[in-house]
Amino acid sequence: MHSTIILALLLIILGIFSLFVGVLDVQIEGILKGDTQQIHTLLASRLPRLLAIVCTGVGLSVAGLIMQQLCMNKFVSPTTGGTIASAQLGILIALIFMPDSTLYSRAFFAFLTAMVGTWIYVAFIQTIKFKDTVMVALVGIMFSYVIGGITNFIAFKYDMVQVLSTWLTGSFSLILRGRYEIVYMVVPLVFVAFLFANHFNIVGMGRDFSKNLGVPYNVVLFFGLSIASMLTACIVVVVGTISYIGLIVPNLVTMFKGDKLQGTLLDTALFGAVFVLICDLIGRALISPYELPIELIAGIVGSAIFIGLLIFKLKTPRKRVRLAAGKTQESCQK
C-alpha cells in the first residue's frame, strides 16, 4: 500500500513538472494571469503529451504483466513476444491497401496482426521445451526480427520505408490534441484486466488447475492475450515503438511485490507511467531545445536492465533454473 501511494505521488509531481518543460514558455504565473498563448500551448500540446505518456506507460506495463502471468515466464512481453513487430506489420498493411485509412482502422489492423503474431509465439514456446527460461526471450527477439524483416521487405517493395519509419521510432513530439485520443482505450482495457486478474492468475497455474476450479483455460488465455494485443496496438499506432517497457517494469515490480497479479497490477501500472515519464523528461533535457525520441532513452535504460535480469537468471543455481523451466513448460502445455 505504501509503495502504491509513493508511486502515485511521484507520478503527480513529475506530471505537473512535465507540463512546464518544453521549447515554448509556459509558466504558472502566465496561466493564472490568463495568457491565451500559454493556455493554448498547455491544452493543445503539453496536457495531451502528458496523458499519452501516462497511457503508454500503463498500457505497455500491464500488457507485459498479463503476458508474463498467462505464460508463467518473466521474459515474455510485447517486445520479446513479437507483439509490437506484428502491430507494425498491421499498420503497414493498412497503409498499403487502405491509403485513406483513419487512425482507428489502422489500429484495427494492428490489433489483428498483433494478436496473430502473439498467438504464434505463445504456441511455439508451449510446444518447444526450453532448458533455460532465458531462451524464451531470445527466441522471441529472433521471432520479432523475422517479422520486422518481412515488414521491411514489404515496405521496400511498395516504397513505404519513409512512412513506416514513423512507427518504428517511438516519440511523443508529434502528440497534439486530436491526434492521440485513441490511447484512451488503454483505460477501459486496464480496468477489464483488473476485473479478470484472478482468472489470469488461475490460468497461469496450468490447464488442469484451471479445470478443477471451473475456469475455461483456452477462453481466458485467448481473452488475456487479446487485451495485451489491443493495449499494444493502441499505443504503437499513436506513439510508435517503445521497447522493453512491458518487460522490465513487471519484472522489477514483482521482484518486490510477488507474483499475485491482483496485488501487483496497480503498482505495475503506476511504475510504468513513472518510468516512461522519467525517460521522456531525460530525452527533452539532454539536448534542449531539441529532444531525443523516447525509444532511444527507453531502449538504453531498458537494455541495461534487461542484461542485468539475464545475468541474475543465469547466476541462479542451475537446478533451480531447470526446475522453474520445467514448471513453466508444464504449465504452458497443460
From TrEMBL:
<dbReference type="InterPro" id="IPR000522">
    <property type="entry name" value="ABC_transptr_permease_BtuC"/>
</dbReference>
<keyword id="KW-0472">Membrane</keyword>
<protein>
    <submittedName>
        <fullName>Iron chelate uptake ABC transporter family permease subunit</fullName>
    </submittedName>
</protein>
<feature type="transmembrane region" description="Helical">
    <location>
        <begin position="293"/>
        <end position="312"/>
    </location>
</feature>
<feature type="transmembrane region" description="Helical">
    <location>
        <begin position="134"/>
        <end position="156"/>
    </location>
</feature>
<feature type="transmembrane region" description="Helical">
    <location>
        <begin position="220"/>
        <end position="253"/>
    </location>
</feature>
<dbReference type="Pfam" id="PF01032">
    <property type="entry name" value="FecCD"/>
</dbReference>
<keyword id="KW-0813">Transport</keyword>
<dbReference type="InterPro" id="IPR037294">
    <property type="entry name" value="ABC_BtuC-like"/>
</dbReference>
<keyword id="KW-1133">Transmembrane helix</keyword>
<keyword id="KW-0812">Transmembrane</keyword>
<feature type="transmembrane region" description="Helical">
    <location>
        <begin position="6"/>
        <end position="26"/>
    </location>
</feature>
<feature type="transmembrane region" description="Helical">
    <location>
        <begin position="182"/>
        <end position="200"/>
    </location>
</feature>
<comment type="similarity">
    <text>Belongs to the binding-protein-dependent transport system permease family. FecCD subfamily.</text>
</comment>
<dbReference type="GO" id="GO:0005886">
    <property type="term" value="C:plasma membrane"/>
</dbReference>
<dbReference type="GO" id="GO:0033214">
    <property type="term" value="P:siderophore-iron import into cell"/>
</dbReference>
<dbReference type="GO" id="GO:0022857">
    <property type="term" value="F:transmembrane transporter activity"/>
</dbReference>
<feature type="transmembrane region" description="Helical">
    <location>
        <begin position="109"/>
        <end position="128"/>
    </location>
</feature>
<feature type="transmembrane region" description="Helical">
    <location>
        <begin position="79"/>
        <end position="97"/>
    </location>
</feature>
<feature type="transmembrane region" description="Helical">
    <location>
        <begin position="47"/>
        <end position="67"/>
    </location>
</feature>
<keyword id="KW-1003">Cell membrane</keyword>
<feature type="transmembrane region" description="Helical">
    <location>
        <begin position="265"/>
        <end position="287"/>
    </location>
</feature>
